[in-house]
Amino acid sequence: DAKTTQPPSMDCAEGRAANLPCNHSTISGNEYVYWYRQIHSQGPQYIIHGLKNNETNEMASLIITEDRKSSTLILPHATLRDTAVYYCIAAFRSEKLVFGKGMKLTVNP
Amino acid sequence: DTAVSQTPKYLVTQMGNDKSIKCEQNLGHDTMYWYKQDSKKFLKIMFSYNNKELIINETVPNRFSPKSPDKAHLNLHINSLELGDSAVYFCASSQGAGYTIYFGEGSWLTVV
Predict the structure, then answer these.
(1) A95 — contact with chain B (CB < 8 Å)?
(2) What residues contact A65, with CB distance under 8 A and at least 6 apart?
């Protein structure tokens, strides 16, 4: 599975959009981009995933560049409860997910 | 109702002991997993079962033995516990390959 790179941390003001970047320059054509998050002391929570097209659900939007070498997870209106470690993962299949260090998002009041 | 539940949530035990962590999912999923999150916070898959059959075993020591009595349960038994086994163990489930994985709340194992 391709390696992903995320900044270690990021801050965001409550109510603003949070744009979480991820680089996956070695991603192959049939690898999906998955986003999960882990709120302190809880199990990882699925957010969204995509292959080529942008995706949106009730939690977030996923923007994948045309060359698929990077993506951005967008939380449209961040709340304090969105403070968590966010994982961007490139994988062929969801059951082979390998979680890296992720990125700590802190939403400030 | 908790979708994926695991017990115990916290477990402190001595080296050399044998312990089990139980997991149950009420989502009707066919596939269940065990993940381990170590002190550096890396989360890695250990095992995956589909309809009670082992499909993924990621080079885990054979002291770790998963057991699936039915597709709603996947228990993790650990023999001869070592200090390095201290970690958070997450159970998870999904409908199958390529589907969203739902995680439990984790079991904090501390070996002293």
Answers:
(1) yes
(2) A71
